[in-house]
TrEMBL record:
Pathway: Porphyrin-containing compound metabolism; protoporphyrin-IX biosynthesis; coproporphyrinogen-III from 5-aminolevulinate: step 4/4. InterPro entries: UROD/MetE-like_sf, Uroporphyrinogen_deCO2ase_HemE, Uroporphyrinogen_deCOase. The lineage of its organism: Bacteria, Pseudomonadati, Campylobacterota, Epsilonproteobacteria, Campylobacterales. It comes from the Bacteria. Residues 18-27, 142-158 form the Uroporphyrinogen decarboxylase (URO-D) domain. Homodimer. One of its GO terms (cellular component) is cytosol. The record marks D73 as: Transition state stabilizer. One of its GO terms (molecular function) is uroporphyrinogen decarboxylase activity. Pfam families: URO-D. Belongs to the uroporphyrinogen decarboxylase family. It catalyses: uroporphyrinogen III + 4 H(+) = coproporphyrinogen III + 4 CO2. Substrate binds at R23, Q24, A25, G26, R27, D73, Y154, S209, H322. This is Uroporphyrinogen decarboxylase.
């Protein structure tokens, strides 16, 4: 069964431009909040394949998106590498044992063992796949990982940060130590994504949420090259699985983008016209509506029409330029999906 989303990732002709939303399985849906409450907390929900499957499918059924994205979290990777993770209400994720020294890195669990501990993710994928196949198999399932740089920032800082001063201090004063962390995380991610593919995902997305924290001259060295290494590893084994790269906030260095992948995710701070000019001939583009436009149906329609006009029916996947926010009305999210399908219908 041909999936419209997978076809679009490979730049094939589709009856309309498919659409999904980052963080589409989440807090804006009352149905999600109910399941999360049943699970006990966010991390317990990630560890419960049956409930994680249920919330993965909610936006497909309720909002009408063209692809499901696995419900999980990027930080399950460092968690299973031996880092002590807690999600604290009101302040987000926290590692109680951040990495400071080479000895801390050496204590981390290796790639095969860490990836093998993520069985709850692979079980979730198998359950989702079974459900999607039972519905006709037309909806694609996206698997994902955080980029090594984004994961490393949490591992070094211990929590979210606005300045990145601890990991950037390491970048400039002890780059070898940072590269050792990045290399170790990269090896885990390679096997983790391989196991996601073997469990049944159709598409891989690599999120570099903190890409904008690195100055342009250092971005390739400390982030992009590791993402490309993961993509190369997966492409060699699974050429039929499209890969989406999403580095947030790098409009200044689109010229430097390279690698063996199919789709480039455009964040909302990057003009779609600029991304098209720089990358449209090499990659399918995904994005890039400003998520806050979802608060207004009029603003949503305006942006969808502008993006469609910019892309002119060329290789594209509709999405937000980052994740949907928790207080967006569900009807507005549905409106966004329907408008994307309306303006792009061939």
């Amino acid at each position: 069964m041909s999936k419209i989303f997978v076809d679009a990732c490979f730049g094939k002709e589709t009856p309309y431009t498919p659409v999904w939303m980052m963080r589409q399985a989440g807090r804006y849906l009352p149905e999600y909040m109910r399941v999360r409450a049943e699970a006990g907390n966010f991390l317990k929900l990630c560890h419960n394949p049956k409930k994680a499957c249920e919330v993965t499918l909610q936006p497909v059924d309720i909002v009408g998106v063209d692809a499901a994205i696995l419900f999980s979290d990027i930080l399950v990777v460092p968690n299973e590498m031996g880092m002590d993770l807690e999600f604290i209400k009101g302040s987000g994720p926290k590692f109680h044992n951040p990495i400071k020294t080479e000895a801390d890195i050496d204590r981390l669990i290796g790639a095969q063992e860490a990836a093998s501990k993520l069985t709850y993710v692979y079980e979730t994928i198998e359950l989702i796949k079974k459900e999607l196949d039972a519905r006709g198999g037309e909806t694609a399932l996206i698997g994902f990982t955080g980029a090594p740089w984004t994961l490393a920032t949490y591992m070094i800082e211990g929590e979210g940060t606005k300045t990145y001063n601890i990991c950037k201090k390491m970048m400039y004063s002890n780059p070898a130590l940072l590269h050792k962390i990045l290399a170790k995380v990269t090896e885990v991610v390679k096997i983790y994504m391989q196991k996601q593919i073997e469990a049944g995902i159709d598409v891989v997305q690599i999120f570099d949420s903190w890409a904008a924290a690195i100055e342009p001259g250092k971005y390739d060295e400390f982030s992009w090259k590791y993402m490309v290494e993961i993509a190369d590893f997966l492409k060699e084994k699974y050429p039929h699985i499209p890969i989406i790269m999403f580095p947030k906030g790098i409009p200044a260095f689109l010229d430097k983008v390279y690698g063996n992948f199919e789709v480039f995710g455009v964040d909302w701070s990057t003009p779609m016209s600029l991304a098209k000019e720089k990358l449209g001939d090499k990659y399918v583009l995904q994005g890039n509506m400003e998520p806050c436009r979802l608060y207004s149906k009029e603003a949503t329609t305006e942006c969808v029409e502008i993006i469609q006009e910019t892309m002119q029916g060329e290789r594209h996947i509709f999405n937000l330029g980052h994740g949907i926010l928790p207080d967006v009305p569900v009807e507005n999210a549905i409106h966004f999906i329907k408008e994307c399908q309306r303006v792009s219908k061939k």
